[in-house]
Amino acid sequence: MEGEPVNVNEFQELARQALPKMYYDFFSGGAEDQHTLKENVEAFRRITFRPRILVDVSRINLSTTVLGYKISAPIMVAPSSMHKLAHPEGEIATARAAAASNTIMVLSSMSSCTIEEVASSCNAIRFFQLYVYKNRDVAAQLVQRAERNGYKAIVLTVDAPMLGRREADIKNKMIVPPLKNIEGLVSTEVDNDEGSILEGFAKGALDASLCWRDIGWLRSITNLPILIKGVLTREDAIKATEVGVAGIVVSNHGARQLDYTPATITVLEEVVHAVGGKVPVFLDGGVRRGTDVFKALALGAQAILIGRPVIYGLAAKVEYGVSR
Ligand code: FNR
Predict the structure, then answer these.
(1) pTM for this one?
(2) Residue 136: Cβ within 10 Å count
(3) Active site positions, annotated
């Protein structure tokens, strides 16, 4: 590639060149046939605009608010695991880029920098993404540390009762040897000879029995607002508003969990309609262009989140790459 990368696809190519195959496959891949992985992106491309002319666009304002926090543009950092596999500076570099870009970073339960390290390294507005472990004390401790360290919301991920079948990781025997600090891994015995080490972790640690009544448990251990991440239907959107979440993230986990879920942009309107303005609706999955962001906003999202684009920026050009 000649010169500076000019779009996310070019950053992806730089990341591919920079990373060991095992890690690139882990970051870029999806579950099984990767049908939804392709669709998340393709479904955006099928939507075209109906542009109106002769409107004064000489002054534009991209800022918006999320749970009352003002951000410079409706683009947030989605939670993704183990940024140190993309670059040794890991989530700290990502958080600094989020701060410089005046937006919100959602730190993953599977972060390779600690909750405290990320909090003390920058003044980004941070939310904390939670996986709920069989051992509820582990989850409760994570939540309490996030709250103590100034994270402003809990993003409860509900589409990972067990790990999606990511066949590249199984083939590569994906391992994470140099990272001792991964928040959600430290308290678990990881052991899995057959598949990837992550699969072993998920089978051993994640609570596959998590269900709607557990939102009450989460509310009982924190005062932070709770966003629910992984909603794809009107039925679940209505339930989520009934249990009192502060917001909904339409997500299929970047197509890494259940393959053949719909592309997120195709179900956004359904969810927005069901929610009826009671809480804000966010979206992630396949957002690669400013025009994709605009499409999501036009279909009712308050803001979107990006997962892989952040990682590609980090792998290619560290903090500057994430900002770009
Ligand atoms: C993720 N995602 C994710 N989600 C979550 O709630 N907790 C996590 O730890 C992770 N980890 C993770 C790792 C990697 C490598 C990826 C690519 C994704 C899902 C993430 O939050 C988001 O839903 C998707 O990444 C959005 O899709 P795009 O932007 O990657 O297409």
Answers:
(1) 0.95
(2) 14
(3) 253
Indicate which atom in ligand 1 lies nearest the CA of residue 285: 27
What is the Å distance from ligand 1's center to 97 Cα?
Answer: 18
* CA geometry: angle 25, 27, 28, nearest 5 deg: 65
Kindly give the distance from the C-alpha atom of residue 52 to the centroid of ligand 1, in angstroms, as a whole number.
Answer: 35
Question: Contact at 8 Å (CB) between 252 and 232?
Answer: yes
Query: For each of the chain's 324 residues, which pLDDT tens digit applies?
Result: 789 999 999 999 999 999 999 999 999 999 999 999 999 999 999 999 999 999 999 999 999 999 999 999 999 999 999 999 999 999 999 999 999 999 999 999 999 999 999 999 989 999 999 999 888 999 999 999 999 999 999 999 999 999 999 999 999 998 775 555 666 555 444 444 555 667 666 677 789 999 999 999 999 999 999 999 999 999 999 999 999 999 999 999 999 999 999 999 999 999 999 999 999 999 999 999 999 999 999 999 999 999 999 999 999 999 999 999
Amino acid at 183: E
Return d(Cα 177, Cα 30) in angstroms, integer.
22
Report the separation in Å between the CA atom of 45 and the middle of ligand 1, taken as the mean of its atom positions: 21
CA angle 256, 203, 308 (to 5 degrees): 25
Is any ligand 1 atom within 6 A of the Cβ of residue 287? yes
Alpha helix (H) residue ranges in the chain:
8-18, 21-28, 35-45, 90-100, 115-121, 136-148, 167-172, 197-205, 214-221, 234-242, 264-275, 290-298, 308-323
